């Protein structure tokens, strides 16, 4: 009970999962590009974005915070395949489905590398280590420079947001380090934006939605209003927004209602591990 009380307010990865769930009903430009929509309805459910987010987190916990590249990649491949086979109809792309049977990188710049990376932004104690591990999580499948850049930039934004950097500082870092164009407003992006699954046409838009949002919910609504690959775009925007704003308890409850028990188990283990790490505790305490 004491540990549960201490963990109150630690909400790692809910932003990504909620963004995925809330974006699902509007994927493939099915929405009306408005911020006014019902946040939680019967169509709100997790997809491949959440499954791979959970898989990545579990893999990195198993690898350990000081793992080398070989160990981390071995764990990532093993857990991503296991979770992918457990949820074979979650909505993966055709090439990624083939990857489950032959886990060789396929030079992809798809936004799958950026949507699964949120745990990396929380786990490590330096921006350099965060970027390094983010690269590894991408390179097991998405080894195109744009795919790697997408994962690295999102993890960097999460790391900076949780460590108290301002939106202006995050924006300038992303521009200078990764070369993304963040000059357009969401109102300028929205009219012509369509469903696209590349990092280079998803990550900048997601970061812009985060930069414009006034709180966590507003970031989610802003991201959904852009349309396009809505679940992934909102997953990315939500992952950064959580690190900056936190997530309302009511939305966390809605998220947990829509997750399977084995996903909640990994999520709780991740929250616990991060609490213990930041508290400087080495012992493992099992959640009831």
UniProtKB/TrEMBL annotation:
Domain of life: Bacteria
Keyword Cytoplasm attached: no
Binding site for Mg(2+): 47-49, 229, 231-232
Record bears the keyword Magnesium: yes
Keywords: Hydrolase, Magnesium, Metal-binding
Cofactor: record remark: Binds 2 magnesium ions per subunit.
Cofactor(s) annotated in UniProt: Mg(2+)
Pfam families assigned to the protein according to its UniProt record, in alphabetical order: ADP_ribosyl_GH
A GO MF term: hydrolase activity
Alphabetized Gene3D superfamilies for the sequence: ADP-ribosylation/Crystallin J1 (1.10.4080.10)
PANTHER family: ADP-RIBOSYLGLYCOHYDROLASE, ADP-RIBOSYLGLYCOHYDROLASE-RELATED
The protein's name: ADP-ribosylglycohydrolase
Source organism: Eubacterium cellulosolvens (strain ATCC 43171 / JCM 9499 / 6) (Cillobacterium cellulosolvens)
Organism taxonomic ancestry: Bacteria, Bacillati, Bacillota, Clostridia, Eubacteriales
